[in-house]
Design a protein that fits this description.
Organism: Streptomyces sanglieri
Structural class: mainly alpha
InterPro entries: DNA-bd_dom_put_sf, MerR-type_HTH_dom, MerR_fam
Radius of gyration: 21 Å
Number of helices: 9
Strand content: under 5%
Domain HTH merR-type: 37-94
Order of helices and strands: HHEEHHHHHHH
Number of strands: 2
Helix content: 40-55%
Pfam families: MerR_1 (PF13411)
Largest sheet: 2 strands, antiparallel
Keywords: DNA-binding
Length: 247
């Protein structure tokens, strides 16, 4: 089984043959481990020099197994280490030259060291990251982040910095932007999320006010479960509506 530099198995890249693949086939192979990856994302990584598929005389991309493996490594290092693409590219290029190159590591696979995130001096954790790290993770500019914040899509913590959920939000907003969806178009999603949070709070509020500590703890678990169900319902409704309108 193929392994990444971080020790993980490459999802869907081991194959008995190495026949050229279309970008659609590559997307399907990556989707098991990276459900949020899109064709636009793959093209972006190619434009940034992270992968170089062959081209047919007519200009179509043709990927090999090694290309899919490299894409999986890039996506995993972004997801697990929040590394900028420049650092990822340099790391993979060093490995390709046969050099020994270790990724930054801390107390766990989602930690970064040396000027990273600010849990305490000299040590960084994924609990909260700084502005520069968020920009790197989302592959965004300062003006992008300013605009996202002005629309309430990305919100820093009270202490400054951003939590892991905001990193996910920023990445998704950036990916949607590559399809032409601007922050002003996403205000309705922000408003819908706030309404869903209000519904969840109505359910768990009585549990949080209870004197029993176990009941209060159960409130947090209930809130998380309701949030997951809400996300699944939203996805199912969107998929159902698209199916009806497109068929």
């Amino acid at each position: 089984m193929l392994r990444t530099p971080t020790g993980g198995a490459v999802a869907g890249t081991a194959s008995a043959d190495d026949r050229p693949m279309s970008i659609g086939t590559v997307l399907l192979r990556l989707r098991d481990e990276f459900p949020e990856v899109t064709i636009s994302k793959i093209r972006f990584l190619e434009a940034e020099g992270l992968v170089e598929p062959q081209r047919t005389p007519s200009g179509y991309r043709k990927f090999r197994g090694a290309d899919v493996e490299r894409l999986a490594q890039v996506l995993r290092m972004q997801r697990d280490h929040y590394l900028p693409l420049k650092v990822i590219r340099e790391h993979l290029d060093a490995l390709a030259r046969g050099e020994r190159a270790a990724l930054p590591s801390g107390g766990g696979p989602r930690d970064l060291t040396a000027g990273g995130w600010d849990a305490e001096p000299g040590r960084a954790t994924a609990a909260r990251i700084g502005r520069a790290e968020l920009l790197a993770a989302a592959e965004a500019t300062e003006s992008d982040l300013d605009e996202w914040e002005s629309y309430g899509l990305v919100v820093p913590t009270a202490e400054g910095g951003y939590d892991a959920e905001m990193v996910t939000v920023a990445k998704l907003v950036a990916d949607l932007g590559r399809f032409g969806l601007e922050p002003r178009h996403l205000r309705a999603m922000r408003a819908a999320a706030d309404r869903e949070v209000g519904l969840i709070e109505q359910v768990v509020a009585p549990l949080r006010r209870h004197r029993n500590p176990q009941t209060r703890a159960h409130a947090e678990a209930t809130a998380k479960e309701l949030a997951e169900l809400s996300v699944r319902l939203h996805s199912a409704l969107v998929q159902s509506a698209l199916h009806i309108r497109l068929h």
